[in-house]
Amino acid sequence: MNFVVRYDIDMNTVTLSPKFQVVIPLAVRQAMGLEPGMRMVVSQRGKTIALVPVPTLEELKADLKGCGSNLDDDAERF
């Protein structure tokens, strides 16, 4: 039985430094809009490590824009 493995993304390799640091390749940084100082969540599942950008408060507000509430702000509601 033959298996064909197809990758739809470019596979980049990085080297772990003595301080356990890695440099995210330029193409990935540009595609993801990553900037110095951004906070990232690091998660591990099996033998996979994922870095997920933490959204800023402004990004969260922008995502929620237009999601209004139909509730009235009156004293009886509280």
Tell me about this structure.
- There is one protein chain.
- With 78 residues, the chain is α+β, with helices and mostly antiparallel strands.
- The protein has 2 helices and 2 strands.
- It has helices spanning 26-32, 57-64, and strands spanning 40-45, 48-53.
- It has a two-stranded antiparallel sheet with strand order 1-2.
- Strand 1 (40-45) and strand 2 (48-53) form a beta hairpin.
- The longest helix has 8 residues, at 57-64.
- The N and C termini lie far apart (66 Å).
Quick rundown:
By secondary structure, the chain is an alpha+beta fold. The protein is 19% helix and 15% strand. It has a two-stranded antiparallel ribbon.
Q: Give the overall pLDDT as a whole number.
A: 82
Helix content: 10-25%
Largest sheet: spatial strand order: 1-2
| Beta-strand percent range | 15-25%
Number of helices: 2
Quaternary assembly: single chain
Low-confidence segments, ≥5 residues, pLDDT <50? none
Largest sheet: 2 strands, antiparallel
Give the distance, in angstroms, between the N- and C-terminal Cα atoms: 66 Å
Specify the overall morphology.
Answer: elongated
Structural class: alpha+beta
Task: Kindly provide the radius of gyration, computed on alpha-carbon positions and rounded to a whole number of angstroms.
Answer: 21 Å
Order of helices and strands: HEEH
In total, the number of strands is: 2
